Amino acid sequence: MTSPENGQTRRAEPREHFDAVVVGAGFAGLYMLHRLRDTLGLHCRVYEAGDDVGGTWYWNRYPGARCDSESLYYTFSDRMSKELLQEWNWTERYAGQPEILRYIKHVAETFDLYKDIRFSTRVVDATYDEERNRWLVTADDGHVVTAAFLITAVGCLSAASVPEFKGRQDFLGSQFHTGLWPHEGVDFTSKRVAVIGTGSTGVQLIPEIAQHAAHVYVMQRTPNYCIPSRNAPLAAEVVREVKAKVSSIWELMRSTSFGHPIDFPDRSALSVTEEERRDIYEAAWSKGGIPLAFTFNDLVISREANETAAEFVRAKIRELVRDPHVAELLSPRDHPIFTRRVPLENGYYETFNRENVTLVDLRSSPIEEITAAGIRTGEAEYEVDIIVYATGFDAVTGSLFKLGIHGRDGISLQEHWREGPRTYLGVATRGFPNLFMITGPQSPSVLSNMVVSIEQHVDWITDCLRHMRESGVDVVEPLPDAEMHWVTHHNEIANATLVPTTNSWWVGSNVPGKLRRIYPYLGGVGNYRAVCEQVAARDYDGFHMSVHDAAAVARGA
Ligand code: FAD
Ligand code: NAP
Fold first, then answer.
1. Domains and CATH numbers, the chain
2. What pTM was estimated for this model as a whole?
3. Nearest alpha carbon, ligand 2 atom 24
4. Is 61's C-beta closer than 6 angstroms to any atom of ligand 1?
5. Atom 12 in ligand 1: residue holding the nearest Cα
6. pLDDT digits (tens, 9 = 90+) for 14-33
7. What digits encode the pLDDT tens for the residues 77-113?
8. Cα 271 vs. chain centroid, distance in angstroms?
9. Rounded to a whole number, what is the largest CA-CA distance in the chain?
């Protein structure tokens, strides 16, 4: 298995000083670099562990990888560039990974971003030096620089999680995690393959592998409710229409609950007759994609309402999968629909009608060990040539913690968050001055069309830095009360939904030992934006801004 992590830390003397260091060169890092450099004229350095730009779309090259936000909207807006938005033509409703990566590289080239990115370099330590009001940033090759501001763009889904199965190192075949996929690809032709995991990744991957492999064993612990994507080439007319209405569409996306150009109707699932409800679900199902989630406004609030949508999808599974026993195993019964990420599927259920695909139910018989020949569950040993771990990520906080962030008095981010993340607006945290986190915990992040949320954070951070410059201050940090209120508000909103009741990476339950907390903010993209704008309009209410006073720090004042 390839791994981007390597080496020991050797700290040398800082070689260079930057106004800002950004970590990560995915959508977030690239847009941040562009704004810092081109809007504020700052001297910046981006560090990226991969050897090229792309982030998610650089690492996740597994067969079938594609976005499930519609390409037309999963793209930089006119805030990045009006011309780019008009020039670039997506070919499919949901672009595949190669096309998205091509787009991101095109952005980096167009805006001359490559020159300020240091690739194949992983940041392993970032420590705030209070005396000098500087971040000391150390990379895995021992290279050290200082920066006035540290901005994390490390991604919410970038720390691959491979369960510690006994005997994993004994397997004699090949094994891969989907988020660390080999660039040269994997040949599945005539191979026996086990795929562990049936989240969004497994659901995309399995139908693709099944077309080539001799046999695929799908190792499922929790079934998901999957919705057809109805992916198709984009009609020129649709593209033209969207391009003609760019301003109004993006204005809408910035105001909706999830950053898509669609929102909840003012209608409960229990306010219509059974027949009307079925027609509404059918219409959404035939459109494919997210409209099913937006049929009624109480699907993640009321269990009774939720069950109507859940049962609608289970009935679809029974129609699509020929073997009733397999259909039942694929039907979620243990959690309400939409309380964990709903995968979009492209022929997933039909794949289970193939002779060369076997569904292995890990609920009744969990994996006991990986053997030299394959995988042993409580019931049987499955001999395979390849194991694919579609087992997800240590989401949201995983990559942040791996940065080795230490704030005032050497306190680590892990220590400050030992009871769970504590942030103000999900963008900053007390005791870590001049640190900004793009799509940090307690911001909408993964519960949104992420490019919309990334742009909002980047724009907000840019405005905040400009405000500091204009005000003549050089230290910014959330006030304790502001942080406390945000955490309370975040939890109250989440607890008013059904989401906390379900196991998923949204609550951290996928990683053994991780604190069970609601990691993304559930208050909605539009509402969240309004709060952030209000904070800015009130001179960054809730933040303490000051002029660094080295003498006072030395006196311990
Ligand atoms: P990333 O793209 O994750 O980039 C972070 C970068 O930081 C990585 O390249 C990583 O190598 C680098 N990095 C991390 N730590 C360090 C370090 N210590 N030192 C140096 N570099 C470091 N979201 C949607 O809204 N719609 C979708 O359809 C969608 N599809 C997805 C499909 C997949 C397979 C996955 C995994 C996620 C998907 N997402 C989707 C979420 C996706 O992660 C975001 O949309 C977006 O790409 C995140 O961009 P980012 O720049 O914030 O982070
Ligand atoms: P995931 O949703 O966390 O799914 C991981 C899968 O691995 C789950 O089925 C999980 O089972 C299983 N698993 C984990 N540990 C296991 C163990 N010890 N034994 C058996 N099974 C185990 O991860 P993902 O599928 O990579 O998706 C993560 C997120 O990335 C998505 O939710 C989405 O936000 C994003 N993504 C988006 C797309 C897209 O369509 N655009 C594609 C891929 C990913 P349990 O459910 O029982 O824990």
1. 16-159+395-555 (3.50.50.60), 168-236+266-389 (no CATH)
2. 0.97
3. 392
4. no
5. 24
6. 779 999 999 999 999 999 99
7. 999 999 999 999 999 999 999 999 999 999 999 999 9
8. 34
9. 75
